[in-house]
Amino acid sequence: MKILFCYFNLNSPISYSFGVASLSAILKSQGYDVTVLHLNERFIDKNEQVFNQLSDIDILCLSAISSQQKYIIAFLKQLKTLNLPVITIVGGLLATFNPEAISNLCDYLVMGEAEITLPRLIKQIERGKQSDNKIMQKFYPTLFNSSPMDMEAFDYDRIIDMKRGWAEIMLSRGCPFECSYCFNQNIKKLFGQHNIRFKPIKMVIQEISNFRDLCPHLKVINFVDDNFTLNYDYLSLFLIEYTAKIGLPFLCATRSEFINKKTMDLLSRHGCRLVRMGIESGSDHLRAGELNRHCTTESILKAITLLKSYDIEIGLFNMIGIPGETEDDIRKTLELNAAIKPATSKRTILLPFPGTSIYERWKSDIDIDLLINQTNYNSCESVFTFGKQWKEMINYYGAYWDKELSLLAGIKYDYRWEDSVVCREDYYGIA
Predict the structure, then answer these.
(1) Which of 26, 195, 380, 403 has the highest CB neighbour number within 10 Å of its CB?
(2) What is the DSSP secondary structure assignment for residue 12, as one 8-state letter?
(3) Bridge partners of residue 345, in order along the sequence
């Protein structure tokens, strides 16, 4: 049985999918013929190029996040007009938390993590026992006991070359927090006590070693876990192995609550060059209220001071377009960034995707048509309908965030996907 995965990476920074690579590895280990198509402007950007490859494919699998809804719907509608004998399965966050958007356009939806559910469904299809229930909604938290991700799934060498030698790695799944705009809140409810899971250390080291063998220009490891420092005991054991067998400089992300001397000693000792942190807003009341992030500006600044004492660079994530936000609130966010003077500062405009608690709270004030046409998290337009003046204010700061911050901080900030400061080697002394 031949299986084709399509990874939608259109109009967004070049990347690869850990989930697709994991699923590909599992299905290949079970004897299936698996191919992955990377739909990105630099790889494949026309549906026709995909459809031309479907004549001898049995199952087409699509993994999509909510910001890709526009593309997925258009793709599936066009596919239906071809009347090809291909079974379509859609998974990912879009299928899990907004299934009604696409359920009538595909044969099956796989909700939740698919490492267990998808192989079971494919075996069922292979045996000719297709289920009348098109929505597979068993929630099995994956415990990372499978093989390392498939190193043939994507053109990793080319992608890492385009990222200037930066490879992305994930150690864990799950998050203990319940930020109102994040799907992790819902995933926590689905998986309960099994929400937070860590890969076996040997598996992670093997994955990084595979990247190094495949990509001779590999320079930096970017750990993309939501909270890299969540489990100190696991992290300390991992970094000992990492330093001994890999030894490359690395970046990571965490929250101010986990920045302490013990953890910073560990990160500094093992080659951490930059820590990314979401401050989201300079307003304590918006951060704790609308966003459900219970860290204060005082605690953020304390964490920043500690980071700087270790000569570790800082990357900040910010959010504007929060319900109830005023221009004074936005200026507070800019001023907080200017005071910190991070190496990188990125802003997003809040996109309240279906399935999140902030969406449910404000859905009567959301332009749904505008929302589903957002194709990435770097939009310069708010989808809330709070009046023309408010929207113009948000759109202005969305468009001119870098300019305003540069004026306040006295440092030039210029965030572009194609030439991001995150990719500039000289920021971290990496040659």
Answers:
(1) 26
(2) S
(3) 316
Task: Determine the distance from the C-alpha atom of residue 342 to the mean position of all C-alpha atoms in its chain, rounded to a whole number.
Answer: 21
Domain covering 2-136 assigned CATH 3.40.50.280 in the classification: yes
Element (H, E) at 190: helix 184-191
Nearest to 346 by CA among 251, 425, 417: 417
Strands 220-223 and 108-110: unpaired
Among left, alpha and beta (phi > 0; psi -120 to 50; other), residue 221 is: beta
Element containing residue 277 per DSSP (H, E): strand 272-280
Q: What is the DSSP letter of 326?
A: -
Element (H, E) at 61: strand 59-63
CA distances from 60 to 28, 40, 67, 88, 112 (A): 15, 18, 20, 5, 18
What 3-state class would DSSP assign to 362?
helix
161 — phi, psi (to 5°)? Answer: -60, -40
3-class secondary-structure state, position 346: strand
User: How crowded is residue 244: how many other Cβ atoms within 10 Å of its Cβ?
Assistant: 10
Whether the model pTM is above 0.85? yes
Among 55-69, 217-231, 301-315, 351-365, the range scoring the smallest mean pLDDT is 55-69
User: In the chain, where are the structural domains located?
Assistant: 2-136, 162-427
For residue 249, how many other CB atoms are within 10 A of its CB? 15
Query: Closest Cα to residue 130, out of 95, 96, 99, 87?
Result: 87
> Which parts of 223-273 fold into alpha helices (H)?
232-245, 261-269
Which residues are 315's β-sheet partners?
276, 344
Q: Given strand 250-254, what is the order of strands in its sheet?
A: 166-169, 220-223, 250-254, 272-280, 313-320, 344-349
User: Would you say 225 and 170 are in contact if contact means Cβ atoms under 8 Å apart?
Assistant: yes
325-376 pLDDT, tens digit per residue, is 999 999 999 999 999 999 989 999 998 988 899 999 999 999 988 887 776 5
Please report how the helices 327-340 and 388-409 are oriented relative to each other, as an axis angle in degrees rounded to 10: 20
| CATH number at 162-427 | 3.20.20.70
Cα–Cα dist 111/137, whole Å: 5
What is the number of residues in the chain? 431
Cα separation, 261 vs 208, whole angstroms = 27
